[in-house]
Write a structure and sequence with these properties.
Distance between the termini of chain C: 73 Å
Strand order of the largest sheet of chain C: 6-5-17-16-15-7-8
Shape of chain C: globular
Strand content of chain B: under 5%
Number of strands of chain C: 41
Largest sheet of chain B: none
Helix content of chain C: 25-40%
Radius of gyration of chain B: 20 Å
Chains: A mainly alpha (about 475), B mainly alpha (about 200), C alpha/beta (about 1000)
Number of strands of chain B: 1
Structural class of chain C: alpha/beta
Oligomer: heterotrimer
Helix content of chain B: 40-55%
Distance between the termini of chain B: 47 Å
Shape of chain B: globular
Order of helices and strands of chain B: HHHHHHEHHHH
Number of helices of chain B: 10
Number of helices of chain C: 32
């Protein structure tokens, strides 16, 4: 009869502040206990906040189910789309989620290659977030079809019609870009998880937990050769994932850039879509991480250092995005193209001017506060800003999709677009789905990389004597 | 390895089902109100296709004979046979005989018999040796790729117009040469535009 | 006597319709009150209320079992559809299952001329307000599917208007009345004939005393002869005519001019200068199609034609007015004044017109007219009073136009008919015992001042022949389903007297009867069919031995080879009446038939309801047209409800700000606010008749004020201006002669050179289809839209979906305003698919559902489409239409027969668009291939091209340099829409050329 009591924190929890990535007094065991403890906790001991949160997300998942069933029953007509605005929330949400799905791989792969040690305690979590975001994103292209039951026609397979997909269409490129990204992320995430799963297996208080983790751990034995191969594989995967981070959103941006619509047909889209993706990705990481570290009392594992670094990164990427907006405006004037210039004028002053104003304030104006250390070190402020950025990034896609479509070339065919309750239900539903996955994840798997933190402990242990000497 | 095998076998099973008789009902003779035998009428009696399928040269539909046509003979011969009873009923009651379609294309496919006949595509090219069928079934899947076989390379299947209604026609060994000649002679365009069949 | 119930007579007064034998009086009382109460027969509405009151409902069930079937369902067909959509979606989900079993049902005895797969065309005619429109109707296996104009018919010349096209849907309308109803209970025709012929004998004994026949305007020789026969046996019989959308003043004026029944027609092919006095001659009236043809022919600017000049002096913008060279907005009530001023200026002896001084522009018009003596024409408005018609004639006489551009034909309408007003007074004075209504629906469409509903109750017996169980049927003892014109034999005459024998294409779907058959009963031939009636009449007319050949030829040609009406040459001038003094500034309310629904006859026709009305582009509602100045003064915003009041009676309708409408004038239209129309036309819009004054039916003084309440309208065009993009390019004729290439003359419109176009042009070896639309002659009449809808099985989506921007029309007619808001230039531009050489839609479809054909057609393959809608986003012309729901009506059996079997009926979730009528191209290709030749120019006509009354649309093979379309595209006036996008459209436009009067410049 194992007891979980010895998994409650044995070291006092202190946020070591902005220059250290691990609280004081940690040794290998405490780190493991603290992280694994969250997953080992029996259901009844789950924090109230977790229960409430998980329940609410579950409710939204059901809303999603209803919305989708009704969609399949009646057709996409239940949404606000029309001619000329034939794309609506489905595409907006698709791009938004895909964007969010960038942070994880970026943090794990790119920062890994760049040897950013502070990434370690948030990488695992953001990878998970990536997967869940991509899962949400992946649903929309199918829901969005007029005849979703024929979605498989977008996959090239030998058929009795002797027909293949049409390779010139960006939507066809999406199929490959997104599916590749999803697979790679899953593998990358799982490989990174294996040593920890083994650790979980070894320390599991209950037999069934042991067994469960044992299966997942794929027989990891911590042998040197394992570690050797692991390092290689992880490095390779990181190398493989890095270009994908750039490619996915580049190709998603082609959905618009390839079309000739004013507001879509622009070469700047790929870079600034990627920047935007990273932007929203980091925002989402913070939006989720900040409450969680509080509920699970992990101030000493996810420290001010992480938040500070992430904030700086957001600020930087945000400026790239701002540059993108600026260039869009500039080109619409500089090109001298009457459609382009009208499009931009209409974007600002037209019926959807409000969305553009909000977009600018959410994505450019407000985040500038992060220049100030006081703001960056104020957890609540950072959290609020991260949420603002999430909203802003959604609005960006709204502006791009709707304002470009609703007034294109021939004035006679201009129209308006309003999302219906079904649009919102579907959107909110996916958020619920996403959150539920997150909640389940933190309750069942090590949401922080145990072995990587142990490396940190090891690192610190070697540093400490030096520190004492200098005093 | 086993996984690969599994995947492979799943796909091949799917393939077999998809192209097999259960889906395409090739070589499956559906039940008909009358056990009508093309073998008997065409081979034994030597009746020409067009005697019954009158509009095959002029219209998109080959035409299914009205009861009247059956009665031209069956008011005289087999006039009491149970097998031909439905004909007499239909004739007496004025109610049509309801045949089950053997060659059934989807509604979004617009096939036209007359143009194929007029361009030297024989009945048997698509319908097979009906003169050997005691019960009528289809010998080809009528899948799109099957149509494209010919629409891409008509020379492989075209025959002299004089031979169109010859059900026993055998392609000559030099079919490809002959075919190319006929294609040019009959101005056959290998029509692979979607709108050729879908409107 | 007439008040007391005669128990021997098989008929009981109306009130007893409501007498429930086995029911408590309270219900009856309740129901009677509801019926008695005010506006319109509230029967339907009552029943819907009744749904709440359980016992009243059950009362209906047991008392009117027949009626309950007639009650429009609360749930409309469309919402049923969506449930269908669901089941369909699931069916689709299992797409890879095997095909369901399908039956072949051959004939037992096959008619010799019927070959499955080969359509047949029959010549017949549609009587529109009594006058014949010659038609050729396409029939597949005896099901009429498409109406075309009859090129040999003088009133059609191969084209039609919107109503002929729409009429096919009326034939298959599931809401048509399907049973004989006696006092609301299902009965049989034999029962009717039995009882009715006895009654008829009684009437004949009384020499027709108290017998009243009410019809619409008719020109049917057979019917007229039957009426003569009737009046010989029943001298006292009175014939009344009710035709709300035909102004009796026209006929009376013509009678005054010619001294007898006459029809004033015009030969616009000879007219250099045309002045219309509020006339809508291009879409209204028996000869409108012919006028359109002549008018447009004279608008040609190439080929040495002297282009005509057209002054439209009008109030409400008409279709013709939209392409006038000069349009002068004048209040409808002031048209007469202007007419008199014009007359005086041209030296006609006319009494002084009261009020205003002659407008500044009048002089220029006068000059122009005087310069074109014998080559000009002044056309009075259909809805203007007698004075205007007389004045116009006087002017034409003074200009020597009579016999040149103005031709008076002997009238073909019957003599000695009476008006609706007379009928009402006769009813009220109890002179009418038996009222037989053959067609019209006066209970709905009689002016409210006549109070027809009360009058009709005075009749002892009311027999109604009608296609719908409508408002009038509700007040009739007997309702007989009327046969559609495609279901019955009859005959009718064109404006010039040409006779067409209408042959049916199909047996009456619901055992409908024709007016001939009802009259036959009265004449004492109860079992005479329409066919016998018509044929026997013609046997009396054509006595020669070869009658059968004559008969066959007449049927085949679609017109009878007998002399037309004689041409009259009235001498002597008519004294013009003195105009009543009227306050020129008083607010006037103008009443007009609705552009697409007419007088209400078409209100249950989904096609016509959804057809964007010319100019306003409104669908599914009638609006109150408000001039910009009034809107400004009264702060009326578009789609605000406006309260229109005419001596105490009020209607509320959504405002539509109409540029070019004179200040102080509000236009409202008939045809809406119906309760007896059917599932499509019930309870939408306002009922203009309910405030109409029989004394001043078409314009009257009244008040109109905005309520500030917003109303949800379904309009298909949001933006009214061209936003500086010049989709339509226009020039004055002077500029044109200077720059024949004006559409592409300016730098920004210069077509791209081959170098600028990176792509090598594709070599088209066979056909190369293309289309050209001449904006110079397009009037925006919208016949093309509805012809396309009929040809291509295009679905009706309903008001809500149109309001959401989801209408399905493959060709739309854009209307742009330009210039002065109070009198703008108007441009109409039909937009089908452009079939771009470098089509943006094709590259973005992930499943290759839209691709380019070897003949340059942009193919849309429904069965491959998965519905990403990317193609529509990337289409700069936004001509693609998407099935957001299952829009096609898959569950109404009666509509199956109407559909074109050569076009797929689209399902949910697929994109669709103009296909250049690919089915027609393929049909002709197969035909010609079999004949070993190629398609000749003009052999393939697209539906829009064939129907177009102004020949604005030309389609053909661009590779054939001699083809008309190739020659048009070679004109310098030719330009591509949005050419700067380098889409290389196959559909091109010819620039618009105005011919203004220099004297009126600036």
């Amino acid at each position: 009869m194992a007891n979980t009591e010895n998994y409650i924190p044995t070291v006092e929890v202190v946020d070591p502040g902005p220059d250290r990535i691990l609280g004081p007094g940690h040794d290998y065991e405490t780190v493991t206990k603290r992280i694994a403890g969250v997953a080992y906790q029996p259901f009844k001991n789950s924090p109230k906040k977790w229960l409430v949160g998980a329940f609410i997300s579950f409710v939204f998942v059901n809303i999603f189910m209803v919305a989708v069933s009704y969609l399949f029953l009646r057709g996409v007509g239940i949404w606000g789309i029309n001619i000329p605005v034939a794309w609506g929330f489905a595409i907006i949400n698709f791009v938004w989620w895909i964007g969010i799905g960038h942070a994880g791989t970026l943090i794990s792969a790119i920062l890994f290659l760049l040897k950013q040690d502070w990434r370690q305690s948030i990488s695992r979590f953001s990878e998970a977030m990536t997967l869940f975001a991509v899962a949400c994103a992946g649903m929309f292209p199918i829901l969005h079809l007029g005849r979703p039951w024929l979605a498989y026609w977008l996959i090239p397979y030998p058929n009795s019609m002797w027909l293949w997909p049409q390779p010139r269409s960006p939507l066809e490129w999406d199929v490959f870009a997104v599916s590749t990204y999803a697979t790679t992320s899953v593998v990358f995430w799982y490989v990174g998880l294996i040593p920890d799963l083994a650790a979980m297996r070894d320390a599991a208080p209950h037999l069934w937990q042991k067994r469960a983790y044992a299966i997942l751990a794929l027989g990891w034995r911590n042998s040197a050769i394992h570690w050797h191969r692991y390092q290689k594989a992880y490095l390779l995967l990181a190398g493989l994932a890095t270009p994908l981070v750039l490619s996915v959103h580049t190709i998603v941006s082609f959905d618009f850039a390839i079309a000739q619509l004013p507001g879509w047909h622009t070469t700047i889209f790929p870079p600034y879509f990627v920047a935007g993706a990273v932007y929203s990705g980091f925002a989402m990481v913070l939006t989720l991480m900040i409450p969680l570290r509080r509920w699970y009392n992990m101030k000493d594992l996810v420290t001010l250092r992480h938040i500070d670094a992430a904030s700086k990164l957001m600020l930087g990427v945000g400026l790239i995005v701002a540059y993108g907006y600026g260039m869009e405006a500039f080109f619409s004037w500089y090109s001298g193209d009457k459609y382009e210039s009208f499009m931009y004028w209409n974007r600002i002053t037209g019926p959807y001017g409000w969305s553009y104003a909000m977009l600018i304030s959410c994505n450019i104006v407000i985040p500038q506060a992060l220049w100030f250390e006081r703001v960056r070190h104020n957890i609540v402020a950072v959290w609020l800003i991260s949420i603002v950025i999430n909203i802003g990034m959604w609005l960006e896609r709204f502006v791009i999709v709707v304002t470009s479509l609703h007034r294109d070339f021939l004035p006679s065919s201009w129209g308006k677009y309003v999302g219906t309750q079904w649009d919102w239900a579907t959107y909110a539903g996916t958020i619920g789905f996403f959150m539920l996955l997150i909640f389940l994840f933190v309750r069942t798997l090590p949401s922080i990389s145990i072995f990587e933190l142990r490396e940190v402990v090891h690192h610190d242990k070697q540093l400490e004597p030096l520190v004492e000497e200098t005093i | 390895m086993a996984a690969l095998l599994l995947i492979a076998s799943t796909f091949s099973v799917a393939y077999i089902i998809d192209r097999g008789p259960w889906i395409t009902s090739v070589r499956v003779a559906p039940e008909q109100p009358i056990e009508f035998s093309h073998k008997h009428h065409v081979k034994d009696d030597g009746i020409d296709c067009r005697y019954c399928h009158t509009s095959v040269e002029t219209s998109g539909y080959a035409g299914i004979p009205p009861t009247e046509t059956c009665m031209t003979c069956h008011s005289q011969i087999w006039s009491n046979a149970t097998v031909t009873a439905p004909i007499r009923e239909s004739w007496a009651s004025g109610k049509s005989i309801e045949w089950t379609r053997v060659h059934d294309l989807p509604d979004f496919v617009y096939f036209n018999h007359s143009i194929h006949i007029n361009k030297g595509i024989g009945c048997s090219t698509c319908h097979g040796q009906v003169n050997e069928m005691s019960l009528t079934y289809k010998v080809n899947t009528l899948n799109m790729n099957w149509c494209l076989n010919c629409h891409r390379e008509p020379e492989r299947f075209i025959r002299p117009k004089s031979e169109v209604f010859n059900i026993d026609y055998q392609y000559p060994p030099d079919q490809m040469e002959l075919g190319k000649k006929l294609v040019a002679e009959y101005h056959v365009h290998s029509l692979t535009d979607c709108v050729t069949c879908h409107r | 006597m007439k008040d007391s119930v005669n128990h021997n007579s098989p008929f009981i007064p109306i009130e007893s319709l409501l007498e429930p034998p086995r029911k408590r009086v309270t219900d009856l009382q309740e129901l009677r009150e509801k019926l008695a109460s005010g506006n319109g027969p509230q029967f339907w509405r009552t029943l819907e209320e009744a749904a709440e009151s359980e016992e009243l409902h059950e009362y209906i069930e047991q008392e009117f079992p027949g009626l309950s079937g007639q009650i429009p369902q609360g749930v409309d067909r469309r919402s049923l559809l969506k449930v269908m959509g669901a089941s369909l979606a699931l069916a689709g989900a299992a797409a890879c299952t095997k095909q369901p079993k399908e039956l072949i049902v051959p004939y037992v005895r096959q008619p010799e001329n019927i070959i499955p797969g080969m359509p047949l065309f029959y010549a017949t005619a549609m009587p529109l307000h009594g006058y014949a429109r010659g038609l050729l109707v396409e029939s597949h296996l005896n099901r009429p599917t498409k109406v075309e104009g009859n090129p040999d018919h003088p009133a059609s010349l191969g084209s039609t208007g919107i109503f002929e096209q729409g009429s096919i849907l009326n034939l298959y309308d599931p809401d048509r009345s399907q049973t004989v109803l006696r006092e609301g209970r299902i009965s049989t025709y034999s029962e009717f004939t039995g009882l009715f012929s006895t009654a008829a004998q009684g009437i004949t004994e009384r020499k027709g005393e108290g017998l009243a026949i009410l019809t619409g305007v008719t020109t049917s020789p057979t019917l007229i002869s039957q009426m003569q026969a009737l009046s010989t046996s029943n001298p006292a019989v009175k014939w009344y005519v009710h035709e709300p959308s035909v102004n009796p003043a026209m006929a009376s004026a013509a009678r005054k001019i010619a001294g007898k029944n006459a029809f004033v027609s015009y030969d616009l092919s000879k007219a250099d200068v045309i002045v219309s006095l509020d006339a809508d001659f291009l879409t209204n009236g028996p000869a409108s199609v012919v006028y359109s043809k002549q008018f447009s022919a004279r608008r040609a600017v190439e080929g040495g034609n002297k282009r005509n000049r057209y002054y439209a002096i009008e109030c409400t913008q008409t279709v013709g007015g939209s392409i006038a060279d000069h349009r002068f907005p004048v209040k409808s009530s002031q048209i007469a004044v202007v007419a008199y001023q014009l007359a005086k200026a041209l030296g006609v002896n006319a009494p002084d017109a009261p009020g205003a001084a002659a407008p500044s522009w009048l002089n220029a018009v006068v000059q122009d007219l005087q310069g074109a003596k014998g080559r000009s024409v002044v056309i009075p408005g259909e809805f203007q009073p007698e004075s205007v018609h007389l004045a116009a004639h006087a002017i034409n006489a003074a200009l020597g136009n009579i016999g040149q551009t103005v031709i008076l034909y002997e009238g073909v309408e019957p003599e000695g008919t009476h008006s609706t007003e007379e009928l009402v007074s006769d009813l009220n004075n109890g002179h009418v015992e038996t009222l037989i209504i053959l067609g019209p629906n006066p209970v709905y469409s009689a002016a409210s001042t006549l109070n027809f509903k009360d009058a009709i109750r005075k009749a002892r017996l009311v027999v109604r022949l009608g296609q719908m169980f409508d408002e009038t049927s509700l007040f009739s003892h007997w309702h007989i389903p009327e046969a559609h014109y495609l279901e019955t034999w009859s005959d009718s005459r064109a404006f010039d007297g040409t006779i067409t024998i209408q042959q049916p294409l199909i047996e009456p779907l619901y055992g409908g009867k024709s007016a001939h058959e009802i009259l036959s009963i009265l004449i004492g031939k109860p079992d005479q069919t329409s066919h016998d009636a018509v044929k026997s009449y013609w046997q009396t007319q054509y006595k020669a031995a070869d009658f059968q050949t004559f008969w066959q030829r007449s049927l085949h040609d679609g017109w009878v080879n007998v002399p037309k009406s004689g041409i009259l040459n009235p001498s002597g001038s008519i004294a013009l009446p003195v105009l009543p003094a009227a306050d020129a500034n008083a607010v006037e309310i103008v009443f007009r038939p609705d552009p697409t629904i007419g007088d209400g006859t078409w209100s249950n026709n989904g096609w016509l309801q959804e057809l964007p009305k010319p100019q306003t582009k409104m669908t599914w509602d009638n609006v109150v047209l408000v001039s910009p100045k009034d809107a400004q003064a009264q702060h009326i915003a578009g789609a605000d409800l406006v309260e229109v009041t005419v001596d105490g009676r009020t209607i509320k309708g959504p405002a539509w700000i109409a540029p070019g409408l004179p200040e102080g004038s509000f236009t409202i239209t008939f045809g809406y606010g119906r309760s007896g129309s059917g599932r499509v036309g019930n309870e939408i819009g306002y009922n203009a008749y309910s405030i109409q004054n029989a004394a001043m039916p078409y314009v009257t003084t009244g008040t109109a004020k905005g309520t500030g309440v917003h109303y949800r309208i379904a309009n298909t065009q949001e933006t009214q201006t061209m936003a500086g993009r010049a989709p339509v390019r226009a020039a004055d004729i002077a500029e044109f002669s200077e720059h024949p290439n004006f559409p592409t003359n300016e730098e920004e419109f210069k077509p791209l050179t081959q170098e600028e176009n990176e792509y090598k042009p594709w070599p088209y070896t066979g056909y190369k289809w293309g289309m050209t639309i001449d904006l110079n002659v397009c009037t925006g009449c919208s016949a093309c839209i509805i012809a396309c809808q009929s040809e291509n099985n295009i679905a009706v989506v309903g008001k809500d979906q149109v309001a959401r921007g989801r209408h399905m029309h493959w060709i739309r007619v854009d209307r742009y305003y330009h210039g002065n808001l109070d009198n703008p230039e108007v441009y109409n531009q039909p937009i089908p698919c452009m079939h771009c050489e470098q089509a943006p839609c094709e590259v973005v479809c992930p499943v290759a559902a839209t691709v380019h054909s070897n003949e340059g057609i942009n193919e849309m393959v429904y069965n491959r489409c998965v519905g990403t809608r990317y193609c529509s986003n990337n289409c700069p012309y936004k001509v693609r239409r998407f099935n957001f729901y299952l829009f096609s009506d898959w569950n109404t059996q009666s509509l199956y027969g109407m559909r074109n079997p050569d076009v797929t009926v689209r399902s949910r979730g697929v994109m669709e668009k103009c296909s250049y009528c690919i089915q027609r191209i393929q049909e002709n290709k197969i035909k010609t291939e079999k004949e070993g030749r190629t398609i000749r120019d003009g052999e393939v006509l697209t539906a829009c091209q064939q129907v177009c009354p102004t020949n604005a649309i030309t389609f053909g093979n661009l590779n054939d340099k001699k083809s008309k379309v190739a020659q048009l595209q070679a004109l310098q006036r030719n330009y591509n829409l949005l050419d700067d996008l380098n889409t290389r459209p196959r559909t091109t436009y010819l620039g618009y050329v105005r011919n203004p009067n220099e004297a009126l410049k600036g």
